[in-house]
Design goal:
4 copies of one chain form a homotetramer.
Chain A lengths: L4 E9 L4 H11 L3 E10 L4 E9 L7 H14 L3 E6 L5 E6 L4 H12 L5 E7 L5 H6 L4 E3 L7 H15 L3 E4 L8 H6 L4 E5 L11 H8 L3 E8 L9 E8 L6 H24 L3 E4 L2 E4 L2
Parallel strand pairs in A: 5-6, 5-8, 6-7, 8-9
Antiparallel strand pairs in A: 1-3, 1-4, 2-3, 9-10, 10-11, 12-13
Helix pairs in contact in A: 3-8
């Protein structure tokens, strides 16, 4: 029952004939299209598309796609990626002490909501080790000592390399990554921030939301870029609060937001639904 | 600045090559695609598509479209409609005494949110006549006397015919239409029901919601079919209530839902975003 | 840091002087009120109140409350309950094979969100035994064979009795309880139904929601009464769906609703925030 | 059917006996309490209360309240206000060219949702004059010329004075008020800002939301203080957007948010449900 599909993600300058070109290519190669969605950004003259087809019975296969598609890609000046459902993305989850996002991701993974492998959980604490064990995920404790972040990150990089990690999920990992870390994994690190960005960038957003007297709290999942909390937003959601809610209530309500907003982002990334441009995300249906 | 586009809505059995066929047709005819969205229903083996292109500079024009498209339509056994942005749909709004949905629609129409003409407002009361006048819309009072619904509807049909009405919007029109009325305007009557259907079908839904002690109230816009409140749902939304809310509060909160849920349905219909099948709606982006 | 408070829940016919009577009683006895909330139902001439005070430094204590409060209770014809924060309610969770609500409740319990004890998890399957063990909760497998429901329920009752159970939570327990079961635990069984009741009462609500083409799905937590899915509603919430969502998507999205809607109901019950009348709930702030 | 009630709003240092004192006072004076709600802020040691009673049949009347209540007010060091349902607050609405919030407020006023008088609409443009006339509200055009804001505000103050204005509603009034204006009407000016503050303070929030690529847009109603967009927040709400939404779509969706968020704030203010402290609002039920 595991599906066997290919997903093509395309970005190129907008012009006439792109859809015809791609659709005709797939048709000539006997591909049965399962989903297709596209977006045109008139202001930036950009065309973006996601198309998924059944590899069973299709003449285009992973090993001949690049060669066959080259003519079209060149004609339209495309940037493209081909993703295969049977090559499951490999996630590393990084976490500190709060375990609610981690527990949520692991439960979803176990239920089959997240079609990925999770070869490692890395934490600067040992609090979540038992949870990782319960779900059968290898746990690595990498302490982050003051002034020794570089050493810690080197150990993390070694793990990512040896495990062939595709995506790093910061599931309430309370450390700021170095610029080197961020540069090393462009568009491959997803973070959950506990505010509706761009409100309350930085530390202690629930405390500042409480101070400001807002009536809504939020959470934001985004790709990590070099500027803190300024990366492309993938998903946001909010919950209503009132004057009765103290900081602790905000934190408790926020946990539900964080779980849901992070898990959606991870799922969409895994399902190859996200394209990035102009520091924004396109989320394909 | 009024746009000059054509929108093609297609339904056909799903098979390979449909997108390629349509896209290639548009490309060969020099059409600049502005939006395209499609949906496949695997269970029903159906393919549905909406594609909109700029008529300026395109070789396919309203008067030659059918002829040119015929070969593709036949090949794929398509049901299709072509809609032109410059042929604005003509709405009749029917209303009784509650004027909140009417006032909302008229204000949106005036602001340019609804790209339609409204040649007539019909009511079985005179309460909304002044409002209609303010917005410059002709108002017709057609009384619906007991046992004389057929006469009233005959007068309504005459108006619809003479005014070339495309869509009938029941903006809290508190009369049940006869089966003849409904049959005469298939997929062309939109109603707002003040509950989240299928809960509270029929009369006095707010009172029954209050009785049942629900924590959410809702509103549903749908196409009218012969079975009361069973037509294809276009849009729904809800608001939260509490034990403090009395029936009057439900009614008041509900007005905001009704306004928004009805106006979205009308706008999507006008923008040719809706396709119907299996008593359901597909709402294209 | 565990609080030591008493919560008084009062229902009585509405009349002048009730608040003055209660407030004066608490003041004379040196009670420091932490929270107070009240509700008046004019239609039913009912007064309902929840008041919580600090037992530390208060002259009224659990053992003398009834005697001292008797005069006021009698004067106003009150029905009242006194709940103590240090006597944590004891929950039995019943579950079948779907474990998402159970995993959610156990994680919240562990995080301190739910101030209760959970001395037992009962299931008619063994699927959740490992999860129960992980969280250190005793697991009892009680098979429910066809035509032997009475025997199974007798075993359940024995467990509830021996464990002094206060509240039974049906966390997707896919069995219908017998009338005897329901009668035995009035206002003490909370169920999660996977629709926005009263829509889709009964079996397979997601399938029927999909069939009907609704644009919102919901979940409802309620007290179980003898009529299926007709008990007092505690909480409801919804999520938006589109024509792209298949039944499996509804089920997946619904899991998040079920988790949140059930956990809120359980928390409010545990925090003694709920009063019942006229088959409705009052949820005190 | 117009009600005849008094509403007492109280703020004082928290201590034992306050509720007993107020409740006993009302009881001794034969007042029938219709609604009571209170809030305690432990951190700031503050007690806040709203209590509404029926003046019919009560011994405490507007003209003897201050004298009779003085002993209690003094004992507990209270700040208090007494509001009478039959003295309807008098609103001035200020608006520029966008008329959606104005049209919404006027329609709600006419439907009886807003229990206030609106003796004047002031605008720096003439666009909304016809709408004001339709609803029978006097319209004053006060131009705000560059470098002549003081003159314009003087004319506005004269109107407010002569009309005995209680509350000034900025219904998308695109001018920044002078510090003198703000100081003159403390806690008596309500503004609608078209973002979920504190995100996108200042000009062009929809454009900046679009630039940032947020997935939610919002609106915030707040009291105006001397620092732009930093006043106490009364209400906020959001709507979901996607990559398909252009700035114009954000503006259109935002209009619905602005209408609802502003009208709620105005209604709560009129119903004397709002108390202010620490630059925050308490919204009583």
């Amino acid at each position: 029952m595991t599906k066997n599909t290919a997903t093509l993600l395309v970005t190129c300058p907008d012009q006439k004939g792109i859809v015809a070109g791609i659709a005709d290519f797939l048709y000539r190669n006997g591909a049965n299209i399962l989903h297709a969605d596209q977006h045109q950004d008139a202001e930036n003259n950009l065309f973006l598309m996601r198309v998924e087809w059944d590899l069973n019975g299709s003449a285009i296969q992973p090993d001949n796609f690049a060669e066959r598609f080259d003519e079209i890609a060149t004609r339209f000046d495309m940037t493209w990626q081909l993703k295969l459902s049977q090559k499951r993305p490999r996630l590393a989850i990084m976490v500190s002490q709060y375990d609610h996002c981690l527990a949520d991701l692991l439960h979803r993974h176990q239920s089959g909501e997240l079609a990925c492998d999770i070869p490692v959980i890395i934490s600067n604490h040992r609090d979540t080790e038992r949870l990782a064990n319960f779900y059968g995920i290898p746990f690595h404790h990498i302490e982050v000592k003051k002034d020794q972040k570089a050493e810690a990150e080197a150990a993390q990089f070694a793990l990512f390399d040896s495990l062939d990690i595709d995506l790093i999920v910061l599931a309430r990992y309370m450390q700021i990554l170095s610029p080197e870390f961020v540069k090393r994994y462009p568009e491959r690190i997803i973070n959950i921030h506990h505010s509706f960005l761009p409100a309350f960038i930085g530390a202690r957003p629930y405390h500042r939301a409480f101070e400001r007297g807002v009536k809504l709290i939020g959470a934001t999942s985004h790709y990590v870029t070099e500027v803190l909390d300024e990366g492309p937003i993938i998903e946001q959601d909010i919950d209503r609060i009132s004057h009765r809610d103290q900081v602790e209530d905000l934190i408790q309500k926020g946990r539900d937001l964080e779980r849901i907003v992070l898990s959606r982002a991870v799922r969409w990334h895994i399902e190859n639904r996200i394209l990035l441009y102009a520091n924004k995300t396109v989320i394909f249906d």
